Amino acid sequence: MTAPLSGITVVGLEQAISAPLCTRHLADLGARVIKVEQPGFGDSTRHYDRVVKGMAAHFVWLNHGKESAALDLTAAEDLEVFAGLLAQADVLVSNLGPGALGRLGFEPEQLLERYPRLIVVDISGYGRGGPLDHKRAYDLLIQAEGGSCSITGTPGAPAKPGIPVADVGTALYAYSAVLAALYHREHTGRGALIPIAMLDVVAEMMGFALNQVIHAGTEPEPVGMGSPMIAPYGAYPTADGQTAVLGTTSDREWRRLTTDLLGRPDLAEESRYRHNHDRVAHRDELDEIVGAWCAQRNLADIQRLADAAGIGNARLNGVRELAEHPQLAERDRWREVDSPAGPLPALLPPALARDWPARSGSVPELGADTEAIRKEFGAAH
Question: Which pLDDT score, from 0 to 100, does residue 138 have?
C-alpha cells in the first residue's frame, strides 16, 4: 500500500527534540524529510553520547528515515539551495532560537507570501510578544516556567518528569497541526503559518491544575507516584520486593476496591471516604490501608486479584523491563531501521492504520545527502 504522506516533502530546520520528533513521525507516514544541518557540527543531539554503536541515543530515536543536508545558510550558494528547497517543499518545520529564521532572511510571514502553498511550523519557547519572547527554551526550562515540575515529585522536592513532556508534547501538536494544514490545503490551495509556543503546550497540559487554582484557589501538591487529584492511586511495595501500582478513578471503582479486592466493605460505607474529594483529603490514611494489604502479598497475586475485581493495576518497571516487555514483543511493535553502523531496533509509530506501511529509512550521517540536494534544488536546477 502507498504510505499516506507519499509525495509530501518536508524540510526540517531543526535541532534537539520537538521539531525532529514531529518530522520523524511525518517520515514514518511516508513523507520525504530533508533535515538541514549546520556543516561540521549538525544537530546538537548528535553529540549527546555514543551509546548506539557510536551514535547518540537521542539522535537515533528522532532522525531515522530522513536525509541530511549540511548547508551553511550564511553562504549565498547554500542559501540559494535552501530557497530552492522551500520552493518545492510542502512543509517547513523549524525550532531554531528566537528570531533565527528572520535573521536568515526567512521571516515566517514573508515565507508564506513567497511560497503560498507552504505550511510553515514555527516552534518557539514562549511565542512572539510578551516579556519572555527573547529567551532560549529547553524542556526543563519550559517545564519549570509552566508549573509542571511543581506538581511532580513530592512536597518541597519538585522534579522534572523523566520524559521530556514539553518537547514531546510540542512535537505531537506540531505533527497534528501539519496533518490538519495539509487537509486544509487540499480544499483551499493555501498553505499556513502555524506558530507553536512550548509554554502554551505545557499550559494546556496543566489544564486540570489551572482549573483547581483558578476556581478553588489551592495549589495542587505533588504526591510522588500518584496524582494530586485522585486517591487512593499510587505505588505500593509488595511482599516479594516489587512494586504494585493500582488505585481508583471513580466512586464505583472505590467500592469494588474496598469490597472485592481488600475485603473491607466497611470502608465503602465510611462517609469520610465516600467521594473522591473526600478520599483525597484522607490520602495518607488510605495509602496506609492499601499499602499494608499489598505488603502481605506477592505482585502476581495482587495483579490476579485486582484483575478479577476490575481494578486497574500495573507493575513498576524500569527501562530494561520496557525494552524486554512481552506486550511489545508479542504484538510485533519492533522494526529494524538502517544506520551507518548497521541495522538497529526501533519501535513502530504508535498510530498507524492497519493498511498503512511504516517507512523505516535510515539514520543519516551528517551531510550524507548534501551534494544530491544541491544538485536537485540548487540554482543550476
Answer: 95
Average pLDDT over residues 66-88: 96
- Is residue 176 very low, low, confident or very high in pLDDT (cuts 50, 70, 90)? very high
pTM value?
0.94
Partner residues linked to 313 by β-bridges: 246
Section 24-46 average pLDDT = 97
Tell me the three cell numbers of residue 41. 557540527
